[in-house]
Structures are given as C-alpha cells and as structure tokens.
Amino acid sequence: MLARHRRVGCPRLRALLAPLLALALASCASPPPPPQQPAAAVPLPPPPPPPATPTVLRANWAFHATESMCNAVAGSRAASLTIVVRPEGMVRLELSLPRPPPARPTAHFAGPAGQWAVAGAASNHGQAVFLLPRNEQSLGRLLILLSGGTLALDGAEPALPVLALPESGPAGREWFDCAKRSVTGA
C-alpha cells in the first residue's frame, strides 16, 4: 500500500516541483542581452554631379581652292575646323577650341549622311590635329562632314564644346571636287 501511495503522490509532487525547478533554472541563466540600438546611419556620399552638357558652337563654312591646295574652314567665334588637302601628303584636319585638347583626342562626327571617328594628337599650338590617308575612305569622311552635323572631341574634362557644322551647299561641293582631284589625281 505504501508503494501505491508513492505512485499516487508522485504526479502531485511533480506538479509542485516542476514550477520550482523551472524558476531555479531561470535564475541561473544569464540575463538576455539588452536590445540592440540601431546602428548610426552612415551618411551616403553626395551623388556625382551630372556630366556637363557641352556647349554647342555654330559654325559657318568658307572655302578656298587653288592648284596647290584645297582649304575649307568651318568657324565660329570661339572655335574652328580647318581642312587642308594638298596634292602631296596626308589630308589634315585641325580643330581649334577655346581650351587646349587632351594629348590624344578622338574626333567624333555625326550627321544625317553618316558618322565616323578618328584618333589624333594635340599640337604645340593647342589644336587637335587629325591626319587622314589619301584614299577613298578619307574622301568619304570629308563628304559626310560637308553634309553637316556635329564634331566633338572625347577625352577632356570638363567637356570641350561641340562644333555644329551646317550643310556646305554648292560651294562645299565645288571644294570637294578640288579635294577629290588632289587625292585621286583625276
């Protein structure tokens, strides 16, 4: 009978001891960590300024042709493009701008007749100089240039002005005939 009582008392004893045991274990445990404070927000750097929109300079054409040279100038107040074609040597494009060009400029031309790019060099006089071989491809580039569009240089910060060239008209076509004769000999 005694054994029976122990069995009956055991669930009661468990019921009494379980909360005391849980309380004792909880008091032995380390306290919960304090709530974490949100990290101080690191300020973001300001966004970079938008790229400067280059100034567009509107040019007008002037042409001069002789037996020894075909010369075209597209000029504005602050910039000019000079094209020189002679019976001998390379076709020469010189771009003068308000600021010196980078040491290794690349000229990009885009217009309704097409687009092209050519690498050049800075001269000692602050001009960007581009030399084209005497061939049909160079004549094609000149013809596209005379059809009007924009000529811009890469590689300068801040951006250099863009030269806006109008369509050259009948005077440009006459000059191109001179340039073609000089290049092809025909």
List descriptors.
alpha+beta; 6-stranded antiparallel β-sheet; 3 helices; 11 strands
Description:
By secondary structure, the chain is of the alpha+beta class. It has three helices and eleven strands; from the N terminus they run αβββββββββαββα. It has helices at 2-28, 136-146, 169-184; strands at residues 56-58, 60-65, 70-75, 80-85, 91-96, 106-111, 114-119, 121-122, 127-132, 149-154, 162-165. A six-stranded antiparallel beta sheet has the order 2-3-4-5-9-8, with helices on one face. Strands 1-11-10-6-7 form a five-stranded mixed beta sheet, covered by helices on one side. A hairpin with a 2-residue loop joins strand 6 and strand 7. The protein is rod-shaped, with a radius of gyration of 41 Å.
Topology:
Elements: H1 2-28, E1 56-58, E2 60-65, E3 70-75, E4 80-85, E5 91-96, E6 106-111, E7 114-119, E8 121-122, E9 127-132, H2 136-146, E10 149-154, E11 162-165, H3 169-184
Parallel strand pairs: 1-11
Antiparallel strand pairs: 2-3, 3-4, 4-5, 5-9, 6-7, 6-10, 8-9, 10-11
Helix pairs in contact: 2-3
Radius of gyration over alpha carbons? 41 Å
As residue ranges, the low-confidence spans are none
Number of strands: 11
Structural class: alpha+beta
Terminal Cα separation, in Å?
Answer: 135 Å
Shape field:
rod-shaped
Main β-sheet: number of strands, strand sense, barrel status?
Answer: 6 strands, antiparallel
Order of strands across the widest beta sheet? 2-3-4-5-9-8
Please report which band the strand proportion falls in: under 5%, 5-15%, 15-25%, 25-35%, 35-45% or over 45%: 25-35%
Helices and strands, in order, run as HEEEEEEEEEHEEH
What value does the average pLDDT take?
85
Helix amount, in percent?
25-40%
